[in-house]
Write a structure and sequence with these properties.
Elements lengths: L4 H13 L2 E6 L6 H11 L6 E5 L8 H10 L5 E4 L12 E7 L5 H17 L3 E9 L7 H6 L9 H13 L4 E5 L10 H10 L4 E4 L5 H9 L4 E4 L12 H7 L2 H6 L1
Parallel strand pairs: 1-2, 1-8, 2-3, 3-4, 4-5, 5-6, 6-7, 7-8
């Protein structure tokens, strides 16, 4: 299958800016006004892509939230689903993830089988992604909901082997995720090891709340960093521009 327009845009961002910044918006955790405020200011702040996702849904506002976020920005909006129930037609693409770090068949293939017909029906661009939970020092929502063990922080070799398997299975990206609000983000050394092992883009998220944390992981070879939790209690999204800038090393060199 030829990669679609959004995936090609991701590759272009990595090449032209040296890395990319994904803003993760969770409609379950912040108000509609806050969601829209983030979306409206994202492009001017240097955000490359908006992800919309949630580990689970406490209310039924996910689909309307995606539609409103999409209407508030010209940036690509990608669904980062916690289940097939979060697949909605008003986005540009979907991270078609498989939780390859775990052994729960529900998140390895069952949710994907349920969701695939919806992706086709809604004409969403699927971006096959190997999703890997990394130990973060606390029990995260994704870990609890999925009932899977994360890869230990000091087991970079295990993470690299999983990422390589994802590449050989035809996935187009790997996502190393410490979990929302992680106490410890994915270690820089693990990022470096995984990147050295695979040829596909590597995303890193969970617990990244400072520009230097984003910059370190981009410098280690990550193509994209993902931030979201740090803005949940910051309605003015104070450091959004600084975090985004840290993910674009080529632009900093140009300046």
């Amino acid at each position: 299958m030829i990669p679609g327009q959004v995936y090609q845009k991701l590759l272009g961002i990595r090449q032209n800016r040296g890395g990319g910044f994904f803003l993760l918006i969770d409609p379950d955790r912040i108000s509609e006004r806050h969601c829209l405020s983030l979306a409206e200011s994202a492009e001017d702040s240097g955000v490359d892509i908006i992800l919309v996702g949630s580990s689970f849904m406490l209310n039924s506002n996910f689909a309307p939230a995606v539609k409103k976020i999409k209407s508030a920005t010209s940036l690509p909006v990608i669904i980062f689903p916690g289940s097939f129930a979060q697949i909605t037609p008003d986005a540009d693409a979907i991270l078609f993830t498989s939780l390859i770090s775990g052994r729960n068949p529900n998140y390895l293939i069952d949710e994907q089988v349920k969701g695939a017909p919806l992706v086709r029906q809604y004409n969403l661009e699927p971006i096959p992604t190997g999703y890997m939970l990394i130990e973060s020092g606390s029990l995260t929502s994704v870990q609890y909901i999925s009932g899977t063990l994360p890869i230990p922080q000091f087991k970079s070799d295990i993470a690299a082997a999983h990422a390589l398997a994802a590449q050989y299975l035809g996935m187009r990206m790997v996502y190393l995720e410490a979990g929302s609000g992680a106490q410890q983000p994915v270690p820089v050394e693990m990022v470096r090891t995984v990147v050295s092992y695979v040829d596909i883009p590597v995303m890193v998220g969970g617990g990244l709340s400072a520009p230097e944390q984003c910059a370190e992981r981009i410098e280690a070879g990550a193509s994209f960093v993902v931030c979201g939790n740090c803005f949940e209690n910051d309605p003015k999204h104070t450091h959004l521009q600084e975090l985004a800038a840290a993910a674009h090393p080529l632009e900093q060199v140009a300046v």
